[in-house]
From TrEMBL:
Protein name: L-rhamnose 1-dehydrogenase (NAD(P)(+))
EC numbers, comma separated: 1.1.1.378
Catalysed reaction, written as an equation: L-rhamnofuranose + NADP(+) = L-rhamnono-1,4-lactone + NADPH + H(+); L-rhamnofuranose + NAD(+) = L-rhamnono-1,4-lactone + NADH + H(+)
Keywords on record: NADP, Oxidoreductase, Rhamnose metabolism
SUPFAM superfamilies found in the cross-reference section: NAD(P)-binding Rossmann-fold domains
InterPro entries, per the entry: KR_dom, NAD(P)-bd_dom_sf, SDR_fam
Record organism: Sphingomonas aliaeris
Amino acid sequence: MKLLDGKTVLVTGGSTGIGRAAAIGAARHGADVAINYHSRDEDAESCVAEIESLGQRAFALKGDVALPETATDFVAKAVAAFGKVDVMVSNAGICPFHAFLDMPVEVFERTQKVNMHGAYFMCQAAARQMVAQGHGGAIVAVSSISALVGGEFQTHYTPTKAGVHSLMQSAAIALGKHNIRCNSVLPGTILTEINKDDLADPEKRRSMEGRVPLGRLGAPDDLAGPIVFLASDMAAYVTGAALLVDGGMYVNLQ
């Protein structure tokens, strides 16, 4: 069964990691997909090629999510290509690990602008289009287990993920009357570009794996199913929710 048959799905940060997995997962379920990405041209092109190999339409738009105009441009181009916007997956994010006491202002501000401002503007632009269309829609934001727990070298990052989680709760209230559902997924430790260097240390990786009841770290594909579910009509009465996708890590942090 194709859960997103006939839908159009927009994904930010779609060239690698969770965004790429979500984009391809949506295509496998029958959606046409537009991805936004920041810099990885070859990865974006290969993602589009994989989606098209599944028989779906796709395009990639390069742009910085920290800029409000990127969001309006992305949505406008998706409408021009596909005629509508049914789903927004707000995934783009960065986490340059750094200590708290000497956090450079530019690192703090860039993290806020990409993770929080980017999510806000993308979700707002998609919601405006969905309201204009008049037939509802779904927004899924990629938050993090870091919205619920602290991180010594993530004092700039964890507040943004708590903010994304909170944004979906408030947006669910604001947009419910338009039949637009807003939910977040909270990944645990997923092997992506964000933490590749941090987990290169075998001892640290073993330690992190030991905290997960399922006995392994996550892969981007582990998020594709939950995101597709929340985007689909199977979740028609789910809004304002936050779904942990962490192999049980959160409940085992004791």
